[in-house]
Write a structure and sequence with these properties.
By secondary structure, the chain is of the alpha+beta class. Helix content is 44%, strand content 13%.
């Protein structure tokens, strides 16, 4: 697995260079087949040699839709518990991308409600958090690129959705439309 933190401030990369680097990292990541988010997080945890926990949470209004929380002993990928499906997968992949890219966590602004969300945690335990609330920073854009690339790979590895039994009328209509499109 490639974990190459970008030396922010020492070197400027073009978007093309960032994308190429993210593509290289995405190719190096093991993806379960068929894709399963829990298995992906488990494999990433094993590859990193550090526990990563997926944590659905009732985030308050104004909080990011996802967070990457780092403690001394484990990482937590927090996602709004009301989020599901492809959106949930993408948020988790985005937060995991921060870990894969070696982004340094920082304490988030109090104005996005992080103190309210994690008031039950001792602030000395939390080493840092990265929140997914805006895409203005280079780190957020980079994590978004890697998450999108991983999402494409995950989509290609999902089990096909079972098709309902064919209705004769629907099949006849489909054949009719196919014939019309060939003309």
């Amino acid at each position: 697995m490639v974990l190459s933190p970008w030396p922010f401030g020492r070197r400027r990369e073009t978007l093309r260079q960032v994308r190429r680097r993210c593509e290289q990292i995405a190719r190096s990541i093991r993806m379960p087949e068929p894709f399963d988010l829990q298995r992906f997080v488990g494999q990433l945890s094993a590859d990193r040699g550090r526990p990563i926990h997926l944590l659905p949470f009732d985030l308050p209004p104004g909080a990011p839709c996802g967070l990457c929380v780092t403690t001394e002993y484990a990482d937590y990928l927090v996602v709004r518990s009301s989020t599901s499906g492809a959106q949930r997968d993408h948020i988790v992949l985005h937060e995991a991308a921060h870990l894969m890219l070696g982004h340094r966590p920082h304490l988030l602004d109090e104005q996005i409600g992080v103190g309210q969300v994690f008031r039950h945690l001792d602030p000395r335990v939390v080493q840092g958090m990265l929140g997914r609330s805006a895409y203005g920073t280079v780190e957020e854009q980079e994590a978004e690129i890697l998450a999108s690339l991983l999402g494409q790979r995950a989509g290609a590895r999902r089990q096909p959705v079972p098709q309902p039994p064919s209705d004769p009328l629907v099949a006849r209509l489909g054949r009719s439309l196919e014939h019309h499109n060939r003309v």
